[in-house]
Amino acid sequence: MQEVYLPGMADWEGLTTIIRVTSYRHLLKGQHLIVKKKQTRYYISSLNETVEQFAQRIRNYWHVENKVHSVRDVTQGEDASRIRVQPLPNLFALARNLALNLYREQGETNMAQAQRQAGFGLEFLKTLFRMK
């Protein structure tokens, strides 16, 4: 491990670790690499863990982020939503989460397909809500 000094570091009570993660994001179109983007992220922590433990924590965080946010954005178009006046954005976020949780509880793994099925008719919705 390498000693690092940052201005104002003494004011961060309990700071024990500064982590730099360099990752590469690959955007593919079919078999062809379109963009290879390098990203550097920094984390600070008061935990005293091994490199492997921190790496696992960071991977787990991004797993959740990718599982939830990317599905809400890509499948449900959340980022493109024009709903801006409170409390509607929060209510729609709750509705989107409810839908994803219902799909997953039903055993669905493809959220886009589950959303399409839910829009085709009441039968799938009845199974989601356990109605007869």
Quick recap of the structure?
This protein has helices spanning 51-74, 88-105, 111-120, 122-128, and strands at 17-29, 32-45. With 132 residues, it is α+β, with helices and mostly antiparallel strands.
Can you describe this structure?
With 132 residues, the chain is α+β, with helices and mostly antiparallel strands. Helices cover 45% and strands 20% of the residues. It has 4 helices and 2 strands. Strands 1-2 form a two-stranded antiparallel ribbon. Strand 1 (17-29) and strand 2 (32-45) form a beta hairpin. Helix 3 (111-120) packs across helix 4 (122-128). The model has no long low-confidence stretch (mean pLDDT 86).
